[in-house]
């Protein structure tokens, strides 16, 4: 029989069978004081030790008085081949059924857990997925169905929008299963809902720091610290910018990297605009913009387009699109009012400069991988893409990568989803091989797919109620602007805006923290274009803050929750206490 030496409190050594240790471990779940009913009787278990070394576990069999202590020297030890069993090894593969608090009387099982960093979750996660999109959400689906209960940091602002690049895509016509096509945001909403249904937990925050030098790995977000035994990196890529001299001056005021986010803005309606790029993304944006612009100039920097033949044909044959080959953007031009009025372009074939009259410029020039968070810890190629070996693993054991973060060739939604599947399966195998897996019994969660994210309905004179916090539409805006004595937040959105879908539920929860001291109204710029134009809104999402009819601040794009809180607090009584972090 396999046996292990275990230190007892008096300093002597007692031999305990491996089967006895497994019985102890079978019902113990976390590093907190618990009572556990085993085949050997009722045991009391508690932790002793400091932060610098592995704690000591004290096991007290209820029927007798002596104490056993299981200790280590600050190192993870495999109980199968070591005479000393480390506490981390003791806990790491405990079954998930001990997650719930269980109370009883007499000889019934009693357990209490107190060592969690996120409410209701263990101290050490099986796997944390950093990122979303087709790769991250597919990894979450497979990991959840494998009873790993993955924690997904789907991002908030860094590296793009939660849901990835498809959140800024109109029609997806080549994803299997949708013969009529589907919008990118709708596809991502469905994937996200499916992951949640199987038990994945979403955290809409950016991961700010990752420490891969320790085991378990440590992740730090804006509001949380998490330990995990495995990581799947699915942070994708971010749209590139040209870096022309006046880019920052006109960013969100004429220059944009998201046509479906900003194309419906009043400043572009019935005006000529330009799209720079020659791939599928640029052509798709050009075709989309023909809905609103009077004409679209597609500026291709090389002699040929890189887009698929079908997309090229659609652009060339479209009556409202003119394709300019061998054309580079030199800079943006402005009129006397300081508004963007055109572009200075350079024809590399003719070696000549000219002016192109347009009111907007949209980028479709490719993406760069969002790998900065692991730079210096994980091996990257010269372009910043994560290198992976067999089974999607990076050069760091336990760290996997999926999607556009490592894909330098295909970069399709379907290939990203496939790589997310591979990474999740490889992660499960790794956890099993290393004896790190804590399996959870997953019950499917019924969700509403959180597709619409609608907290309000359009209001008119009959149903407007000033006492409500959340409102929608121009009637409510006019009433609140004149009658509200609270802070007024106006969120401008558009139906095809992926970042708007991400921001609305997050901002809605933030508003609920100030339910007695602010009003919120949502304006759809396609329905209330005159309001958006009067407000000077050039991109979505945009939030305007008012107090007593005075404009306090304007915020374009998606920001951290702390940034919105700071603005709201400045508009309130300075003596009013800031609500606790969510």
Structure description:
Helices cover 23% and strands 25% of the residues. Helix 3 (133-145) packs parallel to helix 4 (184-197). Strand 1 (3-7) and strand 2 form a beta hairpin. The strands form nine sheets. It has a five-stranded parallel sheet, with helices on one face. The chain has a five-stranded parallel sheet with strand order 18-25-19-20-21. The model is unreliable at 1-117 and 447-455 (pLDDT under 50). The protein is globular. With 582 residues, the chain is an alpha/beta fold. The chain has 13 helices and 32 strands.
| Gross morphology | globular
Radius of gyration using CA atoms only: 28 Å
Poorly predicted residue ranges: 1-117, 447-455
Q: Estimate what percentage of residues fall within beta strands.
A: 15-25%
From the N-terminal CA to the C-terminal CA, the straight-line distance is 52 Å
- With strands numbered from the N-terminus, the spatial order across the biggest sheet is 12-9-8-16-27
Please name the defining characteristics of this protein:
582 residues; alpha/beta; five-stranded parallel β-sheet; 13 helices; 23% helix; disordered N terminus
């Amino acid at each position: 029989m396999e046996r292990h030496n275990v230190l007892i409190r008096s300093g002597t050594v007692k031999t305990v069978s491996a089967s006895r240790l497994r019985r102890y471990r079978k019902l113990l779940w976390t590093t907190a004081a618990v009572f556990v009913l085993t085949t050997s009787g009722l045991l009391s278990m508690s932790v002793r030790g400091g932060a610098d070394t592995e704690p000591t576990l004290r096991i007290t069999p209820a029927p007798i008085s002596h104490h056993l202590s299981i200790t280590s020297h600050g190192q993870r030890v495999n109980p199968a081949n070591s005479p000393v069993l480390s506490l981390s090894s003791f806990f790491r593969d405990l079954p998930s059924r001990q997650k719930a608090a269980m109370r009883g009387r007499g000889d019934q099982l009693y357990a209490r857990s107190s060592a969690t960093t996120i409410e209701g979750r263990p101290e050490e996660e099986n796997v944390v997925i950093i990122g979303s999109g087709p790769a991250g959400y597919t990894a979450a689906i497979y990991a959840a169905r494998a009873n790993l209960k993955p924690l997904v940091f789907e991002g908030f602002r860094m590296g793009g929008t939660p849901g990835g690049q498809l959140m800024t895509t109109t029609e997806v016509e080549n994803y299997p299963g949708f013969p009529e096509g589907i919008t990118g945001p709708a596809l991502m909403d469905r994937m996200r809902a499916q992951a949640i249904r199987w038990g994945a937990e979403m955290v809409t925050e950016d991961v700010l720091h990752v420490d891969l030098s320790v085991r378990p790995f440590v992740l730090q977000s804006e509001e949380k610290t998490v330990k995990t035994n495995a990581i799947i990196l699915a942070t994708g890529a971010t749209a590139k910018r040209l870096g022309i001299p006046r880019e920052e001056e006109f960013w969100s005021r004429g220059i944009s990297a998201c046509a479906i986010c900003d194309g419906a803005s009043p400043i572009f309606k019935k005006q000529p605009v330009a799209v720079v790029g020659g791939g599928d993304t640029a052509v798709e944006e050009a075709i989309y913009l023909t809905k609103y612009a009077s004409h679209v100039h597609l500026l291709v920097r090389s002699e040929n387009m890189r887009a698929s033949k079908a997309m090229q044909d659609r652009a060339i044959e479209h009556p409202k699109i003119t394709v300019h080959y061998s054309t580079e953007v030199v800079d943006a031009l402005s009129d006397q009012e300081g508004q963007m009025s055109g572009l200075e372009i350079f024809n590399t074939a003719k070696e000549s400069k000219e002016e192109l009259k347009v009111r907007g410029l949209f980028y479709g020039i490719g993406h760069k991988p969002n790998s900065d968070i692991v730079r210096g810890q994980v091996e990257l190629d010269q372009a910043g893409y994560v290198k992976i070996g067999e089974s999607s693993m990076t050069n760091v054991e336990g760290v996997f990568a999926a999607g556009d973060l490592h894909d330098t060739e295909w970069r399709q939604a379907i290939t990203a989803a496939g790589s997310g599947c591979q990474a999740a399966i490889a992660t499960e195998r790794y956890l099993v091989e290393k004896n790190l897996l804590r399996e959870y019994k997953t019950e499917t969660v019924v969700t509403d797919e959180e597709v619409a994210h609608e907290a309000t309905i359009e209001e008119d004179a009959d149903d407007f109620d000033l006492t409500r916090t959340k409102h929608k539409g121009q009637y409510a805006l006019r009433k609140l602007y004149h009658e509200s004595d609270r802070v007024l937040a106006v969120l401008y959105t558009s139906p095809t805006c992926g970042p708007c879908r991400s921001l609305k539920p997050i901002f809605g929860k933030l508003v609920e923290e100030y339910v007695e001291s602010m009003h919120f109204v949502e304006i759809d710029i396609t329905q209330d274009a005159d309001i958006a134009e009067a407000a000077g809104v050039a991109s979505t999402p945009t939030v305007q803050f008012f107090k007593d009819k005075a404009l306090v601040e304007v915020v374009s794009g998606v920001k951290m929750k702390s940034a919105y809180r700071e603005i709201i607090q400045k508009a309130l009584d300075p003596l009013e206490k800031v609500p606790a972090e969510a």
